[in-house]
Amino acid sequence: MSWYLLGIAGLFEIAWAIGLEYSEGLTRPVPTTVTVLAMAVSVYLLAKAVESLPVGTAYAVWTGIGAVGTAALGVVLFNESADPLRVAFIGLVVVGIVGLNLSSGGH
Questions:
Q1: Distance CA 94, CA 67 (A)
Q2: How far apart, in whole angstroms, are the C-alpha atoms of residue 101 and residue 107?
Q3: pLDDT tens-digit series, residues 72-98
Q4: Assessment of whether the complete model's pTM goes beyond 0.90
Q5: Cβ atoms within 10 Å, residue 76
Q6: CB atoms within 10 A of CB 29
Q7: CA-based torsion, 88, 78, 97, 60: positive or negative
Q8: Cα distance between the two ends of the chain
Q9: Could you write out the DSSP letters of every residue in 3-31?
Q10: Alpha-carbon torsion 1, 61, 98, 101, what sign?
Q11: Mind listing the pLDDT tens digit for each residue in 59-70?
Q12: Where are the alpha helices (H) located in 1-107, listed in sequence order?
């Protein structure tokens, strides 16, 4: 169950990171509110996950999910670079997330 909570926490991390762009420096009330709520949910779910997962592993996976998801949505939503080298390095983050999951018995 902790791995599922961690995955959902990572999705909320993506939401708040993307929300930062839409909030325009936390100056727009509705996007700012959504962003702050997503932050709170993300951290809460991370805290619940680390009750039974090693904190270092959980944090690395959480930030990895956030980084990969945010980078992917940056390409789709904000026309950020999809340069092959950038995509390859993002792929390495995915490999790291899968490796941490497998080595921690989370499969």
A1: 10
A2: 6
A3: 999 999 999 999 999 999 999 999 998
A4: no
A5: 9
A6: 9
A7: positive
A8: 11
A9: HHHHHHHHHHHHHHHHHHHHTTTTTSHHH
A10: negative
A11: 999 999 999 999
A12: 2-22, 29-49, 55-78, 84-103
Q: Which long-range contacts (CB under 8 A, 24 or more apart) does 77-81 make?
A: 77/18, 77/21, 78/21
Alpha carbon 74 to its chain's center: 13
Structure tokens at 74: 């940056």
Q: Which amino acid is present at 14?
A: I
How many CA atoms within 13 Å lie on the side-chain side of 62? 26
CA distance 104 to 80: 33
SS3 98: helix
| Angle of helix 55-78 versus helix 29-49 axis, rounded to 10 | 150
DSSP 54: -
* 37 touches 15 (CB < 8 A): no
Q: What are phi and psi of 24, to 5 degrees?
A: 50, 60
